[in-house]
Amino acid sequence: MQPVGIPWEDFDPVLKQVTVGEAVGHPVWDGFAAVLASYRLWKAGRCDDARARAAEVSGPLPEAMGIWYDQREQQVPLAPMPAPAIPAKR
Fold it and tell me: Are 34 and 27 contacting, i.e. CB atoms less than 8 angstroms apart?
């Protein structure tokens, strides 16, 4: 994955655009935006649109999203995640 560094003064506006699914002209951040927008479409039942949105950009995150969609449609069970270790309070 490419670096995600951006100037501090640009961070807030970039993050705002990315979280609503808008491209910002940076490959990694655009991948984040595509995944977020794609997932919202998937959750809304617009699976074809979700796949198309994820396919608009390249990179490991959108590609992984496509694989995840394949698994969901084939109803392949997800691998169980181990429970996080929570330290006991003393």
Answer: no
**Amino acid of residue 3:** P
The answer to whether the pTM exceeds 0.70 is yes
Compute and round to an integer the Cα radius of gyration of the chain. 16
pLDDT tens per residue across span 24-82: 998 889 989 999 999 999 999 999 999 999 888 888 888 888 888 988 888 866 566 67
What are the helix (H) ranges across the chain?
8-19, 27-43, 47-55, 60-74
Four-point Cα dihedral 21, 44, 68, 49, nearest 10? -70
The pair phi, psi for residue 44, each rounded to 5°, is -85, 5
